[in-house]
Amino acid sequence: MLILVAYDVNTEDQAGRKRLRKVAKKCVNYGQRVQNSVFECSVDAAQYKLLKADLCELIDLEKDSLRFYNLGNSYHAKVEHFGAKESYEADGLLMV
């Protein structure tokens, strides 16, 4: 299934900047960055549960925001891209 992860981490202090880096690094392990704070992650149900738990543990619930959008397995008809940065195949090989 394709999951869209969007986050907003408060970076007014050093701890916030550190959280931001940790959240981004965790997301890179699961998917592809498509905007500054937005990742598309092709995961199964177990990976999705682990991703949510990991990210919720990293953020500060009083200062930060985290959203998950489940686009499911039939996401091709739900995603449109316009503009810079060519789209990629989410089910394709992810090279790290």
Task: Provide a brief overview of the structure.
By secondary structure, the chain is α+β, with helices and mostly antiparallel strands. Helix content is 30%, strand content 26%.
Radius of gyration: 14 Å
Helix content: 25-40%
What fraction strand? 25-35%
**Secondary structure category:** alpha+beta
Structural shape: globular
Sheet with most strands: strand arrangement: 2-3-1-4
Succession of helices and strands: EHEEHE
Count, helices: 2
Indicate the mean pLDDT. Answer: 86
Report how far the terminal alpha carbons are from each other: 20 Å
Strands, total number = 4
Q: Tell me the major beta sheet.
A: 4 strands, antiparallel
Q: Unreliable runs, pLDDT <50, ≥5 residues?
A: none
Explain the overall architecture.
There is one protein chain. With 96 residues, the chain is an alpha+beta fold. The chain has helices at 14-28, 45-58, and strands at residues 2-8, 31-35, 38-42, 65-72. Strands 2-3-1-4 form a four-stranded antiparallel beta sheet, covered by helices on one side. A hairpin with a 2-residue loop joins β2 (31-35) and β3. It starts with a strand and ends in a 24-residue tail after the last strand. The mean pLDDT is 86.
